[in-house]
């Protein structure tokens, strides 16, 4: 009898190229770390105070699998405030322990082994990995760079449809591109999924980090209650709560009900006191968000100016999130490029290849760091490029 083996679905998931480089950087001193997707701003004090009060008030016990009713109500009210849409907090919202878990429960509710999912790429690799964990097949459809803006290749999407295709996943604002789906893009994506009877999953984690208004347009503005649409969300980016692990899923009530039941078998529910902190974030966070976006605009302008002066760099224009994804002429191994950059200059960037099809030849720069980090990082990158033509 053969020895027991690890599950094929686990073996099919490749390791993160970003983490591989980060693990090298963790053993080095003085690295300018721009490979992770987070601000170096601490969680605002009012959020920390709310968590401390919740601990003192006894929020240390189990909650509903769907999350505290008060938090779900606060999320519904924020959707009404920002998007002018009405969601039922009891049946159309489920709280999760992070945006990753929001994607996890949503995708697990939608795919069976052997199914296929279409994913617009380059994209954060977790959604593709979760599809593989379901013993399903991700089919990556690269966005097309036209001038300085990425566009959806609907012809390639249509050509990728198969008999087992069940789901289309996209991210807006995009990690790593900073691309934001326009309302026309969303209309066409929704019509495409209706026509081909697909679920449409939108990762909208960066919606508040948007440079053309207070909030990026949500697909929920376009759909009807019976549409097969689901949104994954998180508190991590907008409220500087990456380590708190709090998110949510919004969507059709049958999916939300099953996602709620799945919570029991994955995490039970998000931590009780963290959920209370999330309520405070939604209630009091607008001034902090406005300040953060203003700071990100300044960082973006600085990094754009620096990159535009570097040899061989093609720079798409981001509209949201906090990433730049410059393409470097002649680059065919972005992982090796970033590894050499790290070892020779102590600048840590993410390789474009880590973000799927269409990513090779580019590098991702997170510009949410302090200028004290960004300025020397851009200087070292420029010198590195000049010396490696």
The geometry reads as globular
CATH architecture of the largest domain: 3-Layer(aba) Sandwich
The assigned structural class equals: alpha/beta
> What's the domain count?
2
Question: Percent of residues in beta strands?
Answer: 15-25%
Report the CATH topology name of the largest domain: Aspartate Aminotransferase, domain 2
Distance between the ends: 56 Å
**Class of the largest domain, according to the CATH hierarchy?**
Alpha Beta
Overall pLDDT score = 96
DSSP strand tally: 16
Unreliable sequence segments: none
Question: Which sheet architecture does the biggest sheet show?
Answer: 7 strands, mixed
- Widest sheet, order of strands: 2-10-9-8-7-3-4
Rounded to an integer in angstroms, the radius of gyration calculated over CA atoms is 21 Å
Helix content: 40-55%
